[in-house]
């Protein structure tokens, strides 16, 4: 099943429903590129802190993610849905790589830095696994020897680290071979989508998301109560378009550019109310999500297909991982048992 196409590795941590931020920041690229590349879509369950106390939630979230992916049209026939922990080679490679990545290098990673601040506020001891997770992400990308990593903007520092590690590993152990391609990052059309509440980021933990699984009514209700221009009290007041989440969403999700431009002009001039602009936005988002809802209903009625997508993809992921680890062990020189001349005569 491995092919001559170049490979994509990307993924998410299974922490619940995927939302419009995931879609515009990354998923859209995955859908567009899925036939051009051989794709490994990873559900990175080793990297979820809920493991410490809520394994049930992790287990459910793995299926939630798969269901969201199937709903948006990531074809599990052409690509591989891989559950990370079911391919323990990810853990093994993480451990080897952790010898070649310094703590200082991790501390300069802005994503980790931000998350570290969060964690320290909540826990009195940061789990060791927390330091491992960017290393593990490097291992994830190197595992299928990926060429391209389409992700949201917040993940870019991890890919930069992966590039360094790939170059270094090739230099140290590759001889004349390139064991790992140096992967490129690809950031989505909307690198960072604002939240419904105007917060800089749409995020589950902030409760400001539109989820891909939301019903028509949910979407409409959420859009109608969305944060817009706080300086504008009446529909006849001239409003602000720049920096207004309502228009950022129109730009991101309404394909009718003429309508969007007309709204912007009238908004600036105080000739349209928020309600009319919001109604049109709710419609545009619902039009986008409707085909996802139909596919979702199909898979909800056929849950064995979700399981099969995960089982088949994970199987391919495992085979590829075994190939890669054979290359890695050979390159590092871990062939202790190959032949006794490797250790005979004993060192004095
Ligand atoms: N850290 C990513 C997230 O939180 C998920 C992820 C894990 C990932 N491993 C990856 C993304 C490798 C891209 C490549 O969404």
Characterization of the model:
The protein is mainly α and 348 residues long. It has 2 domains: 7-194 and 303-342, 3-Layer(aba) Sandwich (Rossmann fold), CATH 3.40.50; 215-297, Tyrosyl-Transfer RNA Synthetase. It has helices spanning 20-33, 55-72, 89-97, 103-107, 110-122, 128-142, 156-173, 216-224, 245-253, 257-269, 274-301, 303-332; strands at residues 7-12, 38-43, 80-83, 148-151, 184-187. The strands form 2 sheets. A 3-stranded parallel beta sheet has the order 1-2-3, with helices on both faces. It has a two-stranded parallel ribbon with strand order 4-5. Helix 1 (20-33) links the parallel strand 1 and strand 2. Helix 2 (55-72) crosses helix 11 (274-301), helix 2 (55-72) crosses helix 12 and helix 6 crosses helix 7. The chain is elongated. The N and C termini lie far apart (49 Å). The model has no long low-confidence stretch (mean pLDDT 93).
Distance between the termini: 49 Å
The CATH C-level name of the largest domain is Alpha Beta
Determine the CATH topology of the largest domain: Rossmann fold
Question: Number of helix segments?
Answer: 12
CATH superfamily of the largest domain: HUPs
Give a short account of the largest sheet.
3 strands, parallel
The average pLDDT is: 93
> What is the percentage of strand-forming residues?
5-15%
Oligomer: single chain
Q: Which stretches are poorly predicted, pLDDT < 50 over at least 5 residues? A: none
The CATH architecture of the largest domain: 3-Layer(aba) Sandwich
- Order of strands in the sheet with the most strands? 1-2-3
Structural class: mainly alpha
Query: Any idea what the radius of gyration is?
Result: 23 Å
Q: SSE order, as H and E?
A: EHEHEHHHHEHEHHHHH
User: How many DSSP-defined strands?
Assistant: 5
**Helical residue percent?**
40-55%
Number of domains: 2
